[in-house]
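To whoever picks this up:

The parser on our side crashed when reading a file containing two proteins. I've narrowed it down to the boundary between the first structure block and the second sequence. Both blocks are reproduced below exactly, byte for byte. First block:
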Amino acid sequence: MTSFSAVLRHGRGWLPLLGVAALLGNLTVLALPTVLGKAIDGIAASGDWVLIACGLIVLGIVCDVVEVIAGTACVAGTTAWLRHGLVARVLAAGPSGVRQFDTGDLVSRVSSNAVDAARAGPATLTAIAAAVPPIGSLVLLILISPWLGAAFLGSVLLVVAVLWLFARRTTEISLAYQETQGRIAATLTEALAGLRTIAAAGTAGREEQRVLRLLPELHARGLRTWQVLARSGAQAAVVGPLVLIAVLAVGGIQLVDHRITPGEYFAAAQYAVIGAGLGGLTSLLGQLARARAGITRVAEVSAAQPMGYGALALPDGPGRLVFDEVTVRAGDDLLLDRVHLDLPGGAAVAVVGPSGAGKSVLAAVAGRLQDPDSGQVRLDGVPLGALSQVALRTAVNCAFERPALVGSTVGDAIGVGSQQPDQLLASARATHVHGFVSRMPDGYHTPLVEAPLSGGEAQRLGLARAWAAERLLILDDATSSLDTATELLISETLMTDRRRRTRLIITHRAATAARADLVVWLDHGRVRAVAPHQALWQNPAYRKAFG
């Protein structure tokens, strides 16, 4: 779980150096007025205090440089750690674990909010170190004269009140601003994914308005942020000089009464300037508020539960697939309602039904892309949740209607780093991919972004990627974009699978169902019948399921 303390702990490699540099720098600021005061009082007698003052100035410059280097390195390292953790958590949680987040919003959290969150360590240390000069100034002013300390404390408390109010307002506003940014990113991602549809429909203007409709809200939240900053800055600008005026007034009286020396008066004036400068911490507190807001948004993603796996291996078996009272809910809706199926191993099983019947949900549960809310799915007698990740993903694989092809090359899209070259080639030949890939300029080494793929070719690549499944192959409408001739060839390969794997085929085509060994007829999340296609075809309602 990502938290404020966890982010601080991760920066422990650089934060100590940053803290020491910030502390030394602020102690230098604190010591310099006293040293300069001593130099003024003793300038005629000795130049030692002047040399000390020059040394302190050089030390302050060095501390500032170290602060910049250490702070930048800390933010960069923590950002990388946060992004690595977020990406790993998203991938481990799977589609069901992060379904509450839009894609664009996730990208915004990983890319932008992670940077804000990473600044928490340096901002916190800098804020703590910034408290040293005013506290030290108060102590040293009291040593010079208790009346000077009292004047300083009374006016500084007003500056602290301004900063406290600013910090309270800014955290909430920063979080709202980041959330609006995430919503805009999510809408833009949707539009980018549908560019062809938008162009074909001629709705570019409407989509532009849809993507940008949140800009006024973002503008309002940004304006609110600047209003709070401007108001606090104005308040600090009014209250800050009061520190200087109060100390100079009291110090002037005591100088006239010879209770303090000119050098002490100069030092007191410098300490008053330090106190007056507290109002300038609003930018630092604003950065800290943005960091807290960023951590809140990052933590929401890191709280997504990764899909757990067992430790069992799959015993030898034909691939018998059993759904035991499986129920899946989405809010108040039942997507699958107490589904019970006992599918024989090695069979080609078609799953048909009208849109919204629960076919894709059944496929997702069978492939353990999501777990049911109740009930159990077993493969050759072993619950899917009890299998190790390696055992499950070696035995079961899925192909989808719109496959997301990943990797640098066409070969990577098929192998996904897990298939050996000979296995990759066998999968490509079995799914009739080898022919069109061989005609590409670099064959399987053709960069994926440069491969001119039709919808059907992309589907075939997705099917080739899934072909390595050893026990259960799931096709979620994975041949819907193929031409009739190619679909017939692949269907023949599926139905006469030499490896005799169990094949669960989601389809809208009657011809595919007719070639299957068995058909599962779903309707409104329930199993209406399980029988061969020819037997079910006598029912008009079954025929209607194919449109």
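<<boundary where parser fails>>
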Amino acid sequence: MSQSTEAKPAQPSVAEANEAVRRRFPFDDTRDLEDARRGFLGTAAESVVKDAEGRVVWDLGSYGFLDRECPATANPSLWRQSRLCSDHGLFEVTEGIYQVRGFDLSNMTVVEGERGVLVIDPLLCAETAAAALALYRAHRGERPVSAVLYTHSHVDHFGGVRGVITDEDVAAGVPVFAPHGFLRHAVSENVYAGTAMSRRAAYMYGAALPKGERGQIGAGLGQTTSTGAVTLIPPTRHINRTGQTETVDGIRMVFQLTPGTEAPAELNIHFPDHAALCMAENATHNQHNLLTLRGAQVRNPRVWARYLTEAVDLFASASDVAFASHHWPVWGRERVGEFLSEQRDLYAYLHDQTLRMLNQGLTGPEIAERMEMPPALERAWHTHGYYGSVSHNTKAIYQRYLGWFDGNPARLWEHPPVEAARRYVGFMGGAEEVLRRARRSYADGDFRWVAQVVGHVVFADPENAEARELQADALEQLGYGSENGTWRNFYLMGAYELRNGPIGTPTVTASPDVLAALTLEQLFDALAIRVDGPASWDADITVRWNVKDGDPVTMRLRNGVLTHGTGTGSTPDVEFTLARTDLRAVLLGTLPPAALAARDDVKVTGDAGRLTELLGHLAAPDPDFAVVTP
């Protein structure tokens, strides 16, 4: 049986469910549409943004199809959200504050000062940031960048910085502001588990999926991720406390630190002279993630809610507009207070009700199925699960408090996926019988069950074309019905890869700039997580680094573990005396051991080949690992 590679129409049950969504919610409420288009000044004449080699990294016109009526293959609520997020151009927020929206997953905000501009959150890649700044200048004049501010440590808020300033600008005095702890979190997240996160982000944002009614229509928080050069210039000035004030180029700012909310290092900013409040990514027009599907540490909704309460208390009564680094602003003091309060109530309710049910003995999946939101919150479009969801956020809260194990000993030591799949398929009478029954469930519209049960057939026999096709069909229907943009992308990416083979990872966040920002401590840690443990059980290698401008560091590979410390007790197999820059180059893999030993300014004592042997025990990560197949 040949396998189809084409996306298919929506099944009647999905089309009917999507139509029910249209009847259930107030689609005639146009306030968000009016807000999203308020202050529009214009957009770029050229619809595509390209890198230096001419490769398209962002296409402003790729979502033009969203102007049409929502088809049966999309949830109308998500279609509405994507339509709002796809508006692109330069927008005036209030006098002196502008946003470039729709040029990346995130927004870039420009605040005008006495001489130049403050750039807040310069997007994900240098190419889109440069295009955004060029658009601003086309409408507001060639003002220099006086300062840059990163609101938090996620890559879509700093990765484009070299599109707006250079190292020379920083050396000449242009400050780069960031919250306390920014650099440590920004680089560690993108390096330690960066390969796995990037691969899963390819599913989450669907950047490589075909765009269209049966494909990628958005990610809820924004449309998708750009695919240009991720850059980083380390901050030069840090915000260390709530209430800290800074003035740059005549722009007065009052800060609120919000660590442990949407990011481990994050802040909000009040502009008292503009009566404007920047909420970073702490209050946006969707329910956010407490555990992002690409993978991360679970966020704390209790802390998140408390910081939103603090923001209301500190700033709401003095703010005529609230804007964020995604979506569109909210105008009017009463509306600002209401918006922030509802966002606060959203995360507090999820936290408290999950804990209530958890303490009644319910498991994460059971809580997710039972959780109902208060009608007043459900009526507010900005609480809808376009990016986070009630389902996966409640499971995240359960995980935060109780971990992966639900307490049932039957699930304490389950077989891994392939071994379990083979047993399931055998118990169910073989692959043909499973597929026969699954087709009946598919016809009944039970796509969740089809995906669950046919997944076992695929993992038991990944070459079974009929199973792959049915699994792809079921995932596709689940995507068509999803209100959540990242769920839709995950489902459709799974279907696409089952039909067409792996797409890979379109955006790489562990860029040279990010790697260069790692401390020596982080570099040693990054090496340790690459050790092939079983292949290194019998290895015992000690290397000492005598850094000319610092303390000596001894690293030892033993028992499959690579440790490091400043102790000099053990006798090394080889000892290098060298500059810090050379050590960093070796640890980053840009300076081979043989080339290091040949340097005149490097002193080597012992067998230099032992370093080569140690590095030979490192395994390369796989950026294209399988997701929907074994």
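After patching the parser it read the second block fine. The first strand starts at residue 40 and ends at 42. The chain has a mean pLDDT of 96.
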